[in-house]
Amino acid sequence: MRKILISGGSIAGPTLAYWLHRYGLHVTLVESAPELRLGGQNIDVKGPALEIIRKMGLEDEIRAANTTEIGLRFVNIKNETIAEFPIGSSLSMTQELEILRGDLVQILYKKIKDNVQYIFGDYITALDQHPDNVTVTYSSGKTEVFDLVISAEGIGSQTRKLVFGDEIKFKYLGVYTAYLTIKKAESDSRWARWCNAAGGIVFVLRPDNNGQTRASVTFLSPEMGYEKLSNNEKKNILIEKIKDVGWEAARLVKEIQDSEDLYFERVSQVKAPKWSNGRVCLTGDAAWCVTPIAGKGVDLSVSGAYILAGELSKTNDHEKAFLNYENRMRPYAESAQKLPPGVPGIVYPTSKIGVAILNGLFSFVGSKPVKNIMNLFSSKNKEPEKEIELPDYEMATN
Fold it and tell me: Is the full-model pTM beyond 0.70?
């Protein structure tokens, strides 16, 4: 039985582990955190990810963990609603299956924990590839031998750096983003709220199913290396950026000061000329990070894991399997990385006049006459086009 090590316990890693085990492979999953990482913001399960989740028998569980969000409201700094788009609208970021990232991580863990060996609080520090296997050294000093190693880590993957060095490039999109969980206030409801402020700042507040609110602050900036700062330095940068801009900035300043789950990172895409080297392969954000702006992170993570596992199940030739996986997934990943002209900068006006113009555009698009016209051309009743073909690997291996 082939032994495979997966590094990364977020979404791509556990999904890959599920399918590899289902195809009869021995799987170990190593996660650098001492326990499951249950933080994070709202994510959606749709398209190919939903198709695969159904194959895994997890749809009902995910529906039960819905965030309760009913749609998106654009508001001005006086908190006046200028446009609203309910769930299902083509202009709403709220999808039918909205779930907290941490809830999905927990659901996947429960599904595989009895069949996959988990190692928490450790990570890969060295990889020594041989013709027939890979010797892995962990930060704990322990060594182990595997047939294959898969990095399903995040955008800053250290395992990827061990194998590819500086070959992987990043495309910075011109914005930094911060996420945190905050206490629910009277102004919060089941609607997500989006507010543009002068200085190229966008605030988003979204409800969750735990009685709290998920907040994000995103702003235009040249690349400044903020992601390398200490947590306190990151907090100071954020507070200085938003403290005088109005809306709910004063509330967020206090929440940032007290936050224990702040995530602050540049928004960058991963540009990898290849996804495998010998017996080591990349998947998820480590391979193609498309950023939250593309709205397809879960789609890609789940479908990439499914296809990689399926291709490995078809052959003992790992190089052939890795190549087939990349040939299937790369067009989809590169398509998701292509953003419309002006995005993301166009939605981050720096002046008050620019914010007023953008809010006027939101108001126009959200008006009843325009919505009625858009509904005439809506393809709501049509079957959506498949973004990527998902082979039935179980039929192929039977």
Answer: yes
